[in-house]
Structures are given as structure tokens and as C-alpha cells.
Amino acid sequence: MKDIALHILDIIQNSIVAKATLIEISIDEDFVNDSILVTIKDNGCGMSKKMIEKVSDPYTTSRTTRKVGLGIPLLKQNADRTGGYLSIKSELEIGTTLIASFKPSNIDCLPMGDIAGVISLTVSGNPSIDFIYNHKINGNLYTFSTIEVKKVLGDVSIGDPSISVYLKEMIQTNLEEIQIDSIGYKT
Amino acid sequence: MAKIKSLDDLRMMKESLQSKINLREKGEDPGSHVQIKVAMATCGIASGAKTVMEFMMEELEKRGIESVITQTGCMGYCFAEPTIEVKLPGKEPVVFGYVDNKKADEIIEKYIKNGELVDGIIPMNYETIE
Lengths: 187, 130
Description:
A: alpha+beta, Heat Shock Protein 90, B: alpha+beta, Glutaredoxin, 4-stranded mixed sheet, 4 strands, 42% helix
């Protein structure tokens, strides 16, 4: 994957396949302490202990169309090589939480990428699932929740193609703002 | 138009779009729309499926083609990613492989608009994977 945003897009698909109805995506970029934490939490079907042990193995997948599953191993590799880590907690019937940690000062750390595009694409592609997206840059937080957005949209579907552009713009504008607010804190 | 930032901005935007959206919803049944599925598993994303999906959403909207674009998992054609499945109203779905923005444009212009087949079809009989 070229950037962290694409990894997030990929991992969210796992939550969707796990039949989650609420997916929380949290990104905490803290350049003062040289850390990027990406947390994806869902209330899907969860995994057994046995599955969690095997899930970082590229030859593990729940699919039947092919024999390999590379989403998690690739993310783990990219996190590990910056000096970060990947951790997965899961309970059957309760859900799964995945945490990926990166060290942004490491030259191998991927750029964040088009996160606004990823969130708006995922949201409009899955109108029946609720998403809460928290993005923090050096302590400045922006929260986007489809629960609120759906209230505003009323009877217009969040999946309507004309809405997607505006969702992306809304997220992008807010991210730029917290980025500007955080400049003073950059080391 | 100023940039949309708050939920209030979004509400205003929605109201200005309302008439257009109502037309769409009260129009024909969804079976009469072009249905497109973009394969969005690890293989697809790594090959650029996100760019293609954004391009298609934007262009179909711009060119005024009624369509429903959704994401799907890996269809098993990892070698030919990004792949998309296009189902024209009343026709069998067709899967296209190696779709970049240029190919997507060709698919919209030739196949979706005129029903003319273009190169890059993956000839497979299969059941749609949900």
C-alpha cells in the first residue's frame, strides 16, 4: 500500500465482512512524541483466540475465493518497520479492535494519504453502517460521525452520489484546519 | 460557494440539492440504474481501486448517468486488479479487468452509454459474490 489511508480502507473491509453496524476509526498523530496511532474498532462478529493467533499469517483468510489474505500482514509489516507495532484484540460476538502504531520520524513511515477520500468513499459505499471517525493532530481533534450526518440529511441517503463529494470536502476542510492549528506545536 | 465545513453547511447544501435528489428517488426503480461494483479488497486497493471508484462516481454524476456504485470484496481476479463489475439494466453483469481511469472512461463512453463491448472483459461464468 502506498499510504496509511489505503491500509485503513482495506482494514475497514474486514469489519464490514464481520457484519459490524458501528465502526470507529481513530487516528492520533502526535509529532511531539513521534507517534501515529491508528485504531479501528468494530462491533462485528469477532474472532476466536485461534484465529487471532493466525491472522498475521499471510496464508490465513476467511475467504473461499483465494488462499491468501494479505491485508493484516502488510499493515503489520509497514508498522513494524517504522519501529511501531500492530495489535489485535477480539472477542466473539462483541467485536474486534485493531491498533497500528507508526513512528513518523522513521524514513520508512508511510504518508497519511487521502484520508478524507477514504472516509467519504467508505461511508457512501456502506450507507447502512455507522462510522465514527476521530482524527487528532498534536492534540487538535476533529470528529465526524455518520449518526449526526444522517440526522442532517434526513430522508436523503448518505450513499447518494451527489452527497459523497460534499462529505469529502467537509472532512478535508476540517482536517486542514486542525493541521494549521497544530503547526505551532511541531518540533 | 464557500467550502463546506460544518453540519449546517451540509444541511444547506442538501436543501439546494433536494429537488434533484427527489427526482432521482421518485424516478424509475433501482433495477433501471446501471449497477457498478468495484472490487475493494487488499489486491484491488493496492492496484488503485480507490482512484477508479472516485473517478467513476464523479464522472457518472457529471455525465448524468443514473447509477449505483458499491464496493465489493475480491472476486478472485487478483491478477487483473482493479476489476469492476458493470450490470446494465436487463443484462448479465460483465467484469472488466485492469481498469485505470482511462479504461474507466472508455467503459463509460462505449459500454455504459452504447452497450458496445470493450477490451479487458474477464470471460468467466460466475455467480455474483455478495
